[in-house]
Amino acid sequence: MFPEGSFKFYTKDELDFRVDIDWQHYRIQAAIEFAAQILGNHGGAPTSVAKDAVDYADALVAELQKKGEQQ
Hints:
The chain is mainly alpha-helical. The protein has two helices and no strands. Helix 1 crosses helix 2. It is elongated. The relative contact order is 0.12. The model has no long low-confidence stretch (mean pLDDT 86).
Protein backbone atom coordinates (compact mmCIF):
# COMPACT_ATOMS: atom_id res chain seq x y z
CA MET A 1 0.00 0.00 0.00
CA PHE A 2 1.29 3.44 -0.95
CA PRO A 3 0.86 6.42 1.37
CA GLU A 4 -1.34 9.22 0.09
CA GLY A 5 0.51 11.80 -1.94
CA SER A 6 3.47 9.46 -2.71
CA PHE A 7 2.79 9.33 -6.45
CA LYS A 8 4.59 11.45 -9.03
CA PHE A 9 3.25 11.85 -12.53
CA TYR A 10 5.56 12.13 -15.54
CA THR A 11 4.91 13.32 -19.06
CA LYS A 12 5.83 11.07 -21.96
CA ASP A 13 8.81 13.33 -22.76
CA GLU A 14 10.24 12.86 -19.26
CA LEU A 15 10.42 9.08 -19.56
CA ASP A 16 13.21 7.14 -21.24
CA PHE A 17 12.07 3.84 -22.70
CA ARG A 18 15.35 2.91 -24.38
CA VAL A 19 16.51 -0.58 -23.59
CA ASP A 20 20.17 -1.54 -23.66
CA ILE A 21 20.17 -5.26 -24.38
CA ASP A 22 23.16 -7.41 -23.48
CA TRP A 23 23.12 -9.43 -26.69
CA GLN A 24 25.96 -11.74 -25.62
CA HIS A 25 24.08 -12.72 -22.46
CA TYR A 26 20.88 -13.22 -24.45
CA ARG A 27 22.81 -15.33 -27.01
CA ILE A 28 24.20 -17.59 -24.29
CA GLN A 29 20.80 -18.05 -22.64
CA ALA A 30 19.19 -18.81 -26.00
CA ALA A 31 21.90 -21.36 -26.86
CA ILE A 32 21.34 -23.12 -23.52
CA GLU A 33 17.61 -23.32 -24.20
CA PHE A 34 18.14 -24.54 -27.76
CA ALA A 35 20.60 -27.20 -26.56
CA ALA A 36 18.09 -28.44 -24.00
CA GLN A 37 15.41 -28.67 -26.67
CA ILE A 38 17.70 -30.44 -29.15
CA LEU A 39 18.80 -32.96 -26.52
CA GLY A 40 15.23 -33.51 -25.38
CA ASN A 41 13.94 -34.04 -28.90
CA HIS A 42 16.74 -35.88 -30.67
CA GLY A 43 19.77 -36.39 -28.50
CA GLY A 44 23.01 -36.43 -30.39
CA ALA A 45 26.72 -35.93 -30.03
CA PRO A 46 27.59 -33.13 -27.57
CA THR A 47 29.75 -31.26 -30.09
CA SER A 48 27.04 -31.39 -32.72
CA VAL A 49 24.33 -30.30 -30.28
CA ALA A 50 26.46 -27.39 -29.04
CA LYS A 51 27.21 -26.20 -32.58
CA ASP A 52 23.58 -26.43 -33.64
CA ALA A 53 22.38 -24.64 -30.49
CA VAL A 54 24.83 -21.76 -31.04
CA ASP A 55 23.85 -21.53 -34.72
CA TYR A 56 20.17 -21.25 -33.74
CA ALA A 57 20.98 -18.69 -31.04
CA ASP A 58 23.03 -16.60 -33.47
CA ALA A 59 20.20 -16.65 -36.01
CA LEU A 60 17.69 -15.64 -33.33
CA VAL A 61 19.83 -12.76 -32.06
CA ALA A 62 20.49 -11.51 -35.61
CA GLU A 63 16.78 -11.52 -36.39
CA LEU A 64 15.89 -9.76 -33.13
CA GLN A 65 18.53 -7.11 -33.76
CA LYS A 66 17.13 -6.50 -37.27
CA LYS A 67 13.60 -6.14 -35.89
CA GLY A 68 14.84 -3.73 -33.22
CA GLU A 69 16.55 -1.53 -35.81
CA GLN A 70 13.34 -1.32 -37.86
CA GLN A 71 11.33 0.16 -34.98
